[in-house]
Design brief:
- Helices cover 39% and strands 14% of the residues.
- The chain is built from 15 helices and 14 strands.
- The strands form four sheets. It has an eight-stranded mixed sheet, with helices on both faces. It has a two-stranded antiparallel ribbon with strand order 1-2. It has a two-stranded antiparallel ribbon with strand order 3-4.
Length: 446
């Protein structure tokens, strides 16, 4: 049962001279501080006291600059330890919700708190449709709703597996001195070794020296752009394709050469024509479970694409972020090429958790040094704590079973969503071969 108690301080409406107290912060002392505690709750008393005070500040019950009841008085009225109240107040001080004045006590911060969470704020309607607008829009719904085309799994899927929590607890038990440094420029060694073993087992032999860890797959793409491209350089991209990639290329001032991708596959004739005319340095391609069509390149087309890249001497950047949800026989450009002119981009936002910003680049040794230099000058090292969590998660024997359940659930949802789209009168644009996407549209009259 919740206990509702009010902690107050003695009324001090006047000073020793019998005049009104000039300190406006003392006016709040006439009001009650209502704190709710529940000894049976899982949440500790420190957090309960802190949350109760913060709620009253946010709803205006406690005004900026007002003085809080003393630690001793609050503890006495609530029947809890002074250490508990002091810890709650210190927690609020650390979060800049309240402040402390030596010899005077605790006061509500003079700065008004922003009470509206980002997800509930009104967003201005877009003035035009663009890749940047699409990338931003998928985050506007908050955690309660999943935006169409967002490219991540529902939070509940990860929570039900409990793997991420277990991995975090294992890392938390590591001695602090192993977690406080910058770490290796290429990233946490054991995770790089794990990735290298997985790629070698599934595709082509590769060493951990060819793996560079990043803050997610998008950061990996950004490092490639910074390393190999200059403003004005032509770049081959799929259309439709990953919107954030298009946004990045626009920001860098690159010339995008769109190559149509449909249910029939990638327009390889257009690739060859663009390559002959513009001599691009790079092409970005999603070989497996394309975003947003959900299709996979045929092996014969993958071989033809590698031949075109070799003929016109450009690099292929293979966005491999969805491979974990595909069949093991799906073609892999990096494997077919032996990591010669293919740079593989991948991450763990789909298989571990989106909030764990951890990904990697896999490439030939000639490209490693330049990519590492770009990583260091643009952001130093990546977070070893996050990389250790990813390693603990991925090396857990339960990970394989979790991934299998994810694939089964995705397959079932594709069936139900396809039915719903067709009932709405839409036409499926391509037969998805698994994964997270299914595209549909209305037929346009000729």
């Amino acid at each position: 049962m919740a206990i509702m108690k009010k902690a107050t301080t003695p009324r001090r409406a006047k000073n020793g001279a019998g005049k009104p107290d000039p300190d406006p912060s003392r006016k709040q002392n006439d009001d009650a501080l209502a704190i709710s505690i529940d000894r049976s709750a899982k949440e500790g008393l420190v957090q309960q006291v802190a949350d109760s005070v913060k709620t009253q500040i946010e709803n205006g019950t406690l005004l900026p600059g007002s003085k809080l009841p003393s630690v001793r008085e609050t503890a006495r009225l609530l029947g809890i330890s002074t250490f508990t109240v002091a810890a709650a107040y210190d927690l609020l001080v650390a979060r800049f919700v309240i402040s402390t004045r030596p010899g005077s006590g605790y006061f509500v911060s003079s700065k008004a708190l922003a009470t509206a969470p980002m997800a509930t704020r009104v967003q201005a309607p877009p003035t035009s449709i663009s890749d940047f607008w699409l990338s931003l829009d998928v985050f506007n719904y908050g955690r309660q709703l999943t935006s169409p085309g967002c490219g991540w799994l529902p939070d509940s899927w990860y929570e039900s597996e409990e793997l991420i929590g277990d991995a975090m607890r294992r890392v938390a038990r590591i001695k602090a001195q192993k977690l406080v440094g910058y770490g290796h420029p290429a990233g946490y060694g054991q995770l790089r070794q794990l990735v290298a073993h997985a790629l070698s087992d599934q595709h082509h032999a590769i060493t951990s020296d060819q793996i560079i860890l990043t803050h997610g797959a998008t950061h990996a793409i950004d490092l490639v752009l910074r390393t190999f491209l200059q403003p004005g350089d032509p770049v081959l991209v799929e259309s439709p394709g990953y919107s954030n990639l298009h946004g990045l290329l626009s920001r860098y001032g690159c010339q995008m050469l769109p190559v149509r991708r449909t249910a029939a596959g990638l327009d390889l004739e257009a690739v060859a024509l663009h390559a002959e005319k513009h001599r691009p340095k790079l092409m970005f391609v999603t070989t497996v479970l394309h975003n947003p069509l959900g299709t996979t390149l045929r092996p014969v087309d993958a071989h033809r694409l590698l031949a075109i890249a070799d003929k016109y001497d450009f690099l292929l950047v293979e966005d491999d972020i969805f491979r974990a949800f595909s069949v093991t026989t799906a073609p892999c450009l990096a494997s077919m090429d032996g990591f010669s002119r293919v740079i593989s981009v991948n991450g763990f936002s789909k298989t571990v958790a989106p909030s764990l910003r951890c990904g990697y680049l896999a490439c030939g040794l000639p490209y490693v040094e330049e990519l590492l230099r770009t990583k260091m000058v643009s952001g130093l090292t990546t977070s070893e704590i996050g990389e250790r969590i990813a390693f603990a998660h991925l090396s857990d024997p339960r990970q394989r079973r979790t991934l299998s359940r994810f694939k089964d659930r995705l397959a079932g949802m594709q069936v139900s969503y396809r039915r719903a789209l067709e009932q709405a009168g839409l036409t499926i644009l391509a037969e998805p071969e698994g994964g997270m996407f299914i595209s549909a549209g209305w037929r346009v009259a000729p």
